[in-house]
Amino acid sequence: MEAAAMLMELSKPIGKKEVTSLASNSLNSISGLIKLCLYTGEVGFRAAWITEIIAHTFPAQFDEHVDEFVEAYIILKNQSAQRHFTKILMELTNGKRIQIHRLLPAVETIIETTFEWMINPQTPVAVKVNCMDVLYNLKETDRWIADELRAQIEFQLKDGSAALQSRGKKVLKKLSRCKRKF
């Protein structure tokens, strides 16, 4: 689908059925779709939602665009889109899908950006908890990540919502199991 047509499509409300259809029809324009994710408001949100569906449903096609995705990730400001981007990055960094070295040299910037989103009081809880998992997945790239993640989660558990408490405790439990490695 052409960029102008995609922009027009994303400018109006769409549901899950349309998102799935757009994902299937956008495999030849993933680069353009990733650029649309950087838009503010609903366009960026809808583009990110479609991008997440593509990343999950068509991993081989999406993985060809990981570098473009990472470039967009580190400059993304739309918090609604951040939720979808962190879900994609959770999947990419879980160790089964893509090797971390594939994210280099941007991995340090990814970690920095993800920590910034997680500690920002304005960041929605859904993004914060996804950030916890992304950082957990990247913990082996540098020793300080696990320690800082543990400290930040413990701090956020003090006043966190039920969702933040639940995910935070799960990540802390996983960190404690692998503590011996650090």
Which terms summarize this structure?
182 residues; 11 helices; 0% strand; mainly alpha
Topology, please?
Layout lengths: L2 H8 L5 H10 L4 H7 L4 H17 L1 H5 L2 H8 L5 H14 L14 H13 L5 H13 L5 H15 L4 H16 L5
Helix pairs in contact: 2-4, 3-4, 4-7, 7-9, 8-9, 8-10, 9-11, 10-11
Task: Describe the protein.
This protein has helices spanning 3-10, 16-25, 30-36, 41-57, 59-63, 66-73, 79-92, 107-119, 125-137, 143-157, 162-177. It has 182 residues and is mainly α. Helix 2 crosses helix 4 and helix 10 (143-157) packs antiparallel against helix 11 (162-177). The radius of gyration is 17 Å and the shape is globular.
What is the mean predicted local confidence, pLDDT?
91
Distance between the termini: 47 Å
- Name the helix and strand elements from N-terminus to C-terminus, one letter apiece: HHHHHHHHHHH
Radius of gyration: 17 Å
- Structural class, by secondary structure, is mainly alpha
Please report the total strand number as a whole number. 0
Approximate shape: globular
Share of residues in strands: under 5%
Biggest sheet record: none
Runs in which pLDDT lies below 50 for 5 or more consecutive residues are none
The number of helical elements comes to: 11
What is the helix content? Answer: 55-70%
Short synopsis of the structure:
By secondary structure, the protein is an all-alpha fold. It is built from eleven helices and no strands.
